[in-house]
Amino acid sequence: MFNSTQSLLAFLSGVAVLAALTTPAQAQLPDPGMSVTAGNTALVITDPQNDFLSPKGVTWGVVGESVTKNNTVENIEKLFKAAKASGMPVFVSPHYYYPTDKGWQFEGALETLMHNIGMFNREGQLSMDGFENSGADFLQRYKPYINDGQTVVSSPHKVYGPENNDLLLQLRKRGIDKVILAGMSANLCTEAHLRELLERGFEVAVVSDGTAAAIIPDGDGYAAAMTNFRFLANDVVDTGEAVLAITESVEKLAAGN
CB within 8 A of 42, min separation 6: which ones? Predict the structure, then answer.
């Protein structure tokens, strides 16, 4: 049955893996990890906008508990600061709705809600009227990092993922194939970005406390996302670990490693 000892060992290894996977109490997912390397790793932040992260935002009533518990606002700023100090490329994928988007004839549950509450509304694609300090605007504390002339702000995504904006193009054109991912909201845009980035061949590490989500009677969006992040991402790290990895990547580059 087996042509070599090697094939026998491979078979036995497969049996062991199968056994582990068929006994949930003992099963353990591997930790592949992601090495953060200067030059081909970028920080990507989804939806760092007032409607998600400000107490004045339209979703604060359902996301505020998670944002506060995770220290999300401060942690996203720590990621921005570390990336800028290290020269790591930074990308923002925002969410905007223009008046013409109100002509959609069908929507999912959250799309319907976002449109009904005026989330991420802007006056138009070519107009900045009313944008400053609106729900669609970036948090004021993030603007020094985003508006420095270096951060790439992609065209907006319209539902959750980056399939219909230019984020992936902008990353590829800069030789990026690894992403540190954070932003809002965990089980929606952040997870959708993770899934698409993985499908397109990127390595992705998600920052667990650099995101948050709605907690409502229908479910805990943050808990759902943490489960899926663990199943899908190359790595799941906290902000301290991400900041250290960003800093060390520059030190390694300088040392010639």
Answer: 88, 89, 90, 91, 171, 174, 176, 178, 179, 180
